[in-house]
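Predict the assembly for these two chains.
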Amino acid sequence: MPYAPRGVGHLRGDQPFPVASRAALADTQLRRNLGKATRTIRAKRAAVVAELPDWEELRAAGQAIKEHTLAHLDSYLEQLESQVTAHGGTVHWARDAHEANRIVTALVRGTGAAEVVKVKSIATDEIGLNEALAAAGITAHETDLAELIVQLGHDRPSHILVPAIHRNRAEIREIFLREMPGVDPGLTDTPAALTEAARLHLRRRFLSARVGISGANFAVAETGTLCVVESEGNGRMCLTLPDTLITVMGIEKVIPSWRDLEVFLQLLPRSSTGERMNPYTSMWTGVTPGDGPQRFHLVLLDNGRTAALADPAGRPALHCIRCSACLNVCPVYERTGGHAYGSVYPGPIGAVLSPQLTGVEDNASLPYASSLCGACYDVCPVRIDIPSILVHLRSRHVEEAARARRVPTAEAVAMAAASWVMASPARYAAALRGGRTGRALRRGGRIRRLPPPLSAWTSVRDAPAPPARTFREWWRLEHGDPDARG
Amino acid sequence: MRIALFVTCLADGLFPQVGQATVRLLERLGHEVTFPQAQTCCGQMHTNTGYLREALPLVRRYVEVFEDCEMVVVPSGSCTGSVRHQHAMVARRFGDEALARRAEAVAARTYELSELLVDVLGLEDVGAYYPHRVTYHPTCHSLRLLRVGDRPLRLLRSVAGIDLVELPDAEVCCGFGGTFAVKNAPVSTAMLADKMRSVLATGAEVCTAGDSSCLMHIGGGLSRLNAGTATVHLAEILASTQDSH
């Protein structure tokens, strides 16, 4: 199965995670912004989830619907296509980012428009649509407040739900003053003032736009209905005012029936914004004469998703409904932010999704960007066992790297040696005895410095000095002949 | 009851006092402890770093060594988690369904120490005495993989003389994560810094947990800072008595 192609879109970072995370760790402003924002949203989510006595049943239902859908994805996608078509829409199939960008660019060109307004959409960011449109002379205006902040700041999103989570309001004020044409030079950094400035800036765009571009949270196969949930109303503007609407949607977003929305519209807002219900839920089915966009195009995007589908152990990553609860509870994400992951999908879900879309070797450091603490699995509204998928992807990396190299890595040699030693009690006991030579390094009962790669440990932590006697030696002394017992 | 001890490679080689405390505690409670000498390591480090093929012989060894035992105790949440949640997966990955079934059967009789004491032996007060200010860190795999819940705290609350203080943000990972601590050392350190801040804020002399690995990480950081707070495994506290003090 083909992966998402290189050289287009935003699924691969320039640097591996351990390198890319260094700058973020040292950025005190960023650390404070992230700590404050994730702590707040964690508490909100926990409070509204605790209100529902059937939360665990809802999670199980969400998981079951997604498992069922992915097992029959081909037929549900065809059903969606026929329903959208029957209701006056046009469906396009895009194998990858290049195809999707070509399709959307041609559609916009066909309208003669030089500008488009966009609903916040990670799928279009994944494929680098804004850059593709710009290359064709078309300007894309982001209308979600946080996406606008990111776009005006010539920045990259760092969170699935809150793309500008790495910015505080003082920084946002500076960006607006610098980049927003005609902004009030007396702009303050109160949330109301910043929002008002954005509102004035965006209103002109909404009223003049002839083409809107969106993603989709869900698409109902049985009716051909698309669904976008949002908080600001900008989505409602983009989805209803322009004459042409183009929706780019990952193929895994389809759900079988209208009834299934009952589950997801409860799971998603509580998990993502910590609200009982999101302020705006927009749904549309093809084209309605005289009401809303009169031309509707749905672009179904693969871009590596079929490759993820083909791996049974990795497949559950496609259940994701992009709530970002896993980011907000992740102790790694909280300290590094999203940019270190190098992909539009950061955090725990990004660490299992990005490598599957690009091929593990193109994002080989991401499955290791986790302590496997399991907090992500606990909050996932569709019960994606992220830690298990991380381990699975690590094993895929180890196997693929071994096949690609003639000489094994030092790590692979060490792991093989450790396995060989520990597969035999005699070799193992000898190795433990050998470890005692480490006692020579001890100062006051602890070891301050070890050679590489363990120097990464002792650069900030002491290491325990090996004991005079291992446990098994003590046991023999205390309990005598080993063969007599146990 | 006859209970086999899987001491774990880390305790065997670096923290023998944890194994000794487990033996002392269970024998004091009137049980017979055995130590099958052919045991080595559960293979968690290999599995979690992606070396499943290298973990396979260790899974097989664990199964062969312990499958005749009525009950196995492990003074580690994460090694118990590996036995229970990973061994069968590793066997199946290489098509060995028979080994996977045997692994599941042994895993069902493998207990983390606090699970054994509370669930199997029905105890909360094990007759321990430990006159120190202590805070408890619930390690991630105990908490979220095994769901031990408040079992360790119930055991600790029953210890005579103890001054047990709550750890702020207790459920947040300490940043160890096995090879994560080396592969992503700076992030691991950032997480450790916050955990140490929480531990030190309690004013405890001792930070305890059910995993030697996390304690090695937290303790290594505290020791480097000469912070005056030590890390002690839960088994050592529960094994302490008036006589041993």
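Chain A touches chain B through 67 residues (CB under 8 Å). The radius of gyration of chain A is 26 Å.
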